[in-house]
User: Fold Sortase A from Caloramator proteoclasticus DSM 10124.
Amino acid sequence: MKKFGIFLITLGISILIFTGVVNYIAYKERQALIETALGVKSSIAANDLEKNNVKKDNRYNAKNPIGVLEIPKIDLIIPIVEGATEESLRNAAGHIEGTGPLGVDSSNYCIAGHRAHYTGGFFHRLDELEVGDEIKIKTKDGEFYFNVIEKKIVTPDKVEVLNPTKGKSLVTLITCHPLYSNKQRLIVVAELKK
Assistant:
């Protein structure tokens, strides 16, 4: 019985360490995406790396980062990548190709993200947003501020949520609903502040 107890304690500690390592790797990958998207430079310049014979850590390669999504109300800061594939959504939110462009009149820039994810519930709290809440998107081209104008739940076949509205610059956030299910979609629409 004593050996079984030691086994369970060891198993529990191993699971905690594994979870911590997975979350740390995911965090580093998200940070690499954010830094690449915004063109943030390392505190050590590339020339300094070469002079001091220091190798740059390339384990966290950023793939197609285009910006950073920030939603202060739900404490969300997440990189945005081009494309909404399963691979691209692993550590980021994905701009749905064929939608957008960002910040342009009569456009709808659509972003998809996981609601419950093993490395972080990126859009986990998206349902807490209300009309008037702020959404910020940073890119190399600047910062764009939006206010939520609508929140709704639709079936997955309602692709018209991707359509632009004449005279408005919109951002639409899309995720599965309810939590841990993909039966419906939670849609949050925000309009560019003028």
Remarks:
- Strands lie at 65-71, 76-82, 93-95, 107-112, 134-139, 142-154, 169-177, 184-192.
- Residues 39-62 have pLDDT under 50 and may be disordered.
- The first strand starts at residue 65 and ends at 71.
